[in-house]
Design a protein that fits this description.
Elements (H helix, E strand, L loop, with lengths): L25 H14 L6 E5 L14 E3 L6 H11 L4 E7 H7 L1 H10 L4 E6 L29 H4 L5 H5 L5 E8 L3 H19 L4 E7 L3 H4 L3 H12 L6 E5 L3
Parallel strand pairs: 1-2, 1-3, 3-4, 4-6, 5-6
Antiparallel strand pairs: 5-7
Helix pairs in contact: 1-7, 3-4
């Protein structure tokens, strides 16, 4: 693998060829999670739970322990692991189809109970792995394989705003939405992931970082167009920022 000047791969990432689609942001989010784990000195204490969808490929890249749950059930599995091994850093890695559709119950009630786990939520507004179908987060008017004329209120309602919903729950300790469409946003995302992991290790409760992400293949765009789509079309619906920050 070619070396990038000024960058050293963290030991928390395996040295493997990349397999995701061109312009996919999963690689950035993978790297940020891995860097934070390494910088916190938690490689031997970390357990990742990558659910069904593109997130399941995280096991190919993360160089720490992992568990494969059923579709949508990652928060339930993470809850069990964290309760049995409370000293571990336990986080799920999930897409919006997995988290906000089949996994809604698991996600919401983990926050209601204040489970001391972290969710890394990659939102590209559709089902990526299975063919680009509409997800609960799909934008109004967005064309997908199941909404070829665009999402409408009459047929599918409105986009689900996960951070805004979870921030209202007493068990939530840290809730943030970030993006990775430029270097400044990448750095902010890394800081948010670090805060979420620190929140968990301090025992403060449930934490979630939503990362707005591009899916050029299923959007029918090239990678540069997809970056503009995140900035111009996703941000007005999903504003960035910290929605909940519980102090010790």
């Amino acid at each position: 693998m070619a070396k990038i000047k000024g960058y050293q791969r963290p030991q928390t990432l395996h040295d493997k060829p990349w397999h995701f689609c061109p312009g996919c942001h999963h690689g950035i989010v993978h790297r940020l999670c891995a860097e934070v784990v390494e910088e916190m000195g938690l490689q031997s204490q970390t357990i990742g739970v990558g659910s069904v969808g593109c997130g399941v490929f995280s096991y190919n890249y993360f160089n720490f322990d992992g568990i494969g749950p059923s579709h949508g059930r990652a928060p339930a599995v993470a809850t069990g692991v964290k309760r049995v091994l409370p000293d571990k850093l336990v986080f799920t890695y999930q897409g919006d189809g997995d988290l906000a559709a089949i996994g809604t119950t698991e996600m919401v009630h983990s926050a209601v109970r204040g489970e001391n786990i972290t969710i890394i939520f990659v939102n590209n507004t559709l089902y990526g792995m299975t063919g680009g179908q509409m997800a609960p987060t799909t934008l109004m008017g967005q064309q997908t394989t199941t909404t070829p004329r665009g999402r409408t209120r009459e047929q599918a309602g409105y986009p689900m705003k996960v951070c805004e919903m979870l921030a209202t729950m007493d068990g939530s300790a840290y809730i943030a939405r970030t993006a990775v469409f430029n270097p400044a946003q990448v750095l902010k995302t890394k800081k948010a992931i670090r805060k979420a992991f620190e929140t968990q290790m301090a025992g403060l409760g449930f934490s979630l970082v939503e990362v707005l992400s591009a899916c050029p293949t299923n959007w029918g765009m090239n990678p540069l167009e997809a970056l503009d789509h995140v900035k111009d079309n996703m941000l007005p619906v999903y504003p960035l920022g910290e929605f909940k920050l519980k102090k010790e």
